[in-house]
Design goal:
Layout: E1 4-13, E2 21-24, E3 29-32, E4 37-40, E5 46-50, E6 54-57, H1 64-70, H2 82-91, E7 100-104, H3 112-120, E8 125-129, H4 135-152, E9 157-162, E10 169-171, E11 178-180, E12 185-189, E13 200-203, E14 217-220, E15 225-233, E16 236-243, E17 245-247, E18 251-257, E19 260-261, H5 273-285, E20 289-292, H6 299-311, E21 317-322, H7 325-329, H8 331-337, E22 340-344, H9 345-351, H10 357-370, E23 375-378, H11 393-404, E24 409-412, H12 414-417, H13 422-446, H14 458-476, E25 481-485, H15 490-497, E26 504-508, H16 511-516, E27 523-527, H17 534-547, E28 556-561, E29 575-581
Parallel strand pairs: 7-8, 7-24, 8-9, 9-20, 12-13, 20-21, 21-22, 22-23, 23-24, 25-26, 25-28, 26-27
Antiparallel strand pairs: 1-4, 1-29, 2-3, 5-6, 10-13, 10-18, 11-17, 12-16, 14-15, 14-18, 15-16, 18-19, 28-29
Helix pairs in contact: 1-17, 11-13, 14-15
Cofactor: Mg(2+); K(+)
Domain Pyruvate kinase C-terminal: 464-563
Protein name: Pyruvate kinase
């Protein structure tokens, strides 16, 4: 068993200390750690070096061997995704891609071989759009993804994206996209019928044409095609195509008059009966995320989360999609209520001027990071790759800008679901994000983001300050990696919020936490058995990671722990330890 040297910087309860300060004079900086805890550093037993020639305390804990002996009978399994493991071995710690990648699964990638190719290219989360395909099809996709995880060693989370009350949805009835020709005449009707009819589009509800006039424009999916209303026939609309393009199944439409969006108020719940059926399906299939469409306030998010708490045996995270002007007006409360955000730029671009999209995207990303919620940038990242094998340079610049803003994840929609070059599109995201992360790392280490205080209780404030300090320590000491032992993933997310240079390896014994952390920037979740003994967990975790060849002699790692003893919550403590492998 390898000897592990350690410098321990521990935080312990001490109600006599009001604002202790970690004063590492030999390292040339001071960092406050909030809360009633002392932080100590033993400088007397110095040997070895860490980072850029900075001297640090290196000490073997006298109890390590005893604790390891107590753990010899425990089963420990390392569940690191094989793609992340391969990347680590090939590129080293600093070469690991930290921006997560989401792929929408559709007809173009529904085979087990196609899914495996996406997984090998770095897919972290598979998204299933419940607007399309049958319940049996979705069930089959989830089984295939779980099979890849179990048999091939991937760690791919599953997200279902539920439809929401889309009052402006139209469907031409064909199984795939239809090419709309310039000048062709189409009938938009609320009549219910099975299958498809030539040049006929079925609207989702009867009152879709209320308040619409002859001369108004109907824009499909934010500009994929455009029609002009030439006649009203009862509740139906006869329309002429003025901008030809692709008409996807179950597309969103918006109405425009004199260059402005026609705004109409409708009393409609956020969640429809179909949505609740899809939610029950997601619970039964054990999905990891549910993305909620057309969220305009925090209430439906809270309602769904409360429902999941009572109905689901596992923890399912709820993501709110920002795709309307009303959602932007209630942005902060929606972010606070949710477990994450998806910026649906396509639908959002229908409701606000196009030139505002970049600034709005950056603001949403900033607020999400401030409130410690992961954010996905979605819609039209590589739209041209639905039909072409290479992206435009503008698309690559768009992707790079999202990475520069430190978005947690990027998402492919039609590019992977119906496109001919889904695997290539994912490869472009992977390469562009990895390159941009390397370029922006130096800037990030020099400019620390002042963090908005989140914690209310003393325990939460202490955890927050420890993670802020740990991220700064990791950057200043140039450690190779950060290890965090976590039950529910909270401190892992707080570390991710700081966007440290080294990758964050989150060791957890909770499968739901492991899959949820797939969405966090820079976090690589590992499944490992944990006990109530913090020191034993740390030693065991490093030994198991070393046995896989993921760390080697001379590597320095910062270890943060939030494991609380189950039978002694009052004795719970967080810790920061710096260890070097010999």
């Amino acid at each position: 068993m390898a000897e592990v040297n350690a410098m321990m910087i521990r935080a312990r309860c001490n109600f006599m200390v009001r604002n202790p300060v970690l004063d590492v004079k030999r390292l040339g900086f001071r960092m406050p750690v909030m809360g009633h805890r002392t932080v100590w550093c033993n400088r007397r037993r110095m040997k070895g070096r860490v980072g850029n020639g900075v001297k640090a305390t290196m000490q073997v804990d006298l109890d390590d061997e005893e604790r390891l002996r107590r753990l010899e009978g425990l089963e420990a399994t390392l569940g690191l995704d094989i793609v992340a493991e391969r990347e680590l071995k090939e590129k080293g710690f600093l070469g690991m891609r930290k921006t997560k990648l989401v792929c929408t699964i559709g007809p173009a990638c529904s085979g087990i071989e196609d899914l495996e190719k996406l997984a090998l290219e770095g897919m972290n989360i598979a998204r299933l759009n419940m607007c399309h395909n049958s319940r049996e099809w979705h069930c089959d996709m989830i089984k295939k993804i779980k099979k890849l995880n179990e048999e091939k060693g991937f760690c791919i989370s599953v997200m279902i994206d539920i439809e929401g009350s889309r009052i402006h949805v139209v469907d031409h009835g064909a199984p795939s996209s239809v090419k709309v020709e310039d000048g062709s005449i189409w009938l938009f009707t609320a009549e219910k019928f099975e299958g498809s009819r030539p040049f006929t589009v079925q609207a989702s509800y009867e009152g879709f044409s209320e308040g619409i006039r002859v001369g108004d424009s109907i824009v499909i999916d934010g500009g994929m095609a455009t029609f002009e209303v030439i006649e009203k026939i009862g509740n139906d609309l006869s329309c002429r195509c003025t901008d030809p393009g692709l008409f996807l199944p179950r597309a969103k439409c918006s109405f425009w008059r004199d260059g402005r969006l026609v705004v109409r108020n409708h009393e409609s719940p956020t969640l429809s009966s179909k949505d609740w059926s899809d939610i029950e399906f997601g619970i039964s299939e054990g999905v990891d995320f549910i993305a909620l469409s057309f969220v305009n306030s925090a209430d439906p998010v809270r309602h769904l989360k409360n429902y999941l708490l009572t109905k689901s045996a596992k923890s399912i995270r709820v993501l709110a999609k920002i795709e309307s002007l009303e959602a932007l007006q209630n942005l902060e409360e929606i972010i606070e209520a949710s477990d994450g955000i998806m910026v649906a730029r396509g639908d959002l671009g229908v409701e606000i001027p196009l030139e505002q999209i970049p600034a709005v995207q950056e603001e949403i990303t900033r607020v999400c990071r401030e409130l410690n919620k992961p954010v996905i940038i979605a819609s039209q990242l590589l739209e041209s790759m639905v039909e072409y094998p290479t992206p435009t340079r503008a698309e690559v610049a768009d992707v790079s800008e999202a990475v520069r803003q430190y978005a947690d994840a990027l998402m492919l929609s039609g590019e992977s679901a119906i496109g001919s070059y889904g695997q290539k599109a994912l490869s472009v995201l992977q390469m562009a994000s990895s390159r941009m992360e390397l370029w922006s790392r130096e800037e990030n280490t020099k400019n620390f983001l002042p963090q908005h205080q989140l914690g209310v209780s003393l325990h939460d404030r202490i955890a927050e300050e420890i993670c802020n300090s740990a991220a700064e320590l990791a950057n200043r000491l140039s450690v190779d990696a950060i290890f965090v032992l976590t039950n529910q993933g909270h401190m892992a997310s707080l570390l991710s919020r700081n966007r440290p240079g080294p990758p964050i390896f989150a060791l957890t014994d909770d499968d739901s936490t492991r899959m949820a952390l797939n969405l966090q920037w820079g976090v690589f979740p590992l499944r490992i058995d944990l006990s109530e003994d913090i020191e034993a967990n740390i030693s065991r975790g490093i030994e198991v990671v070393k046995s896989k060849g993921l760390v080697k002699q001379g590597d320095s790692v910062l270890v943060v722990s939030e494991i609380s003893p189950a039978r002694a919550v009052s004795m719970a403590s967080q810790s920061i330890q710096l260890k070097t492998i010999v």
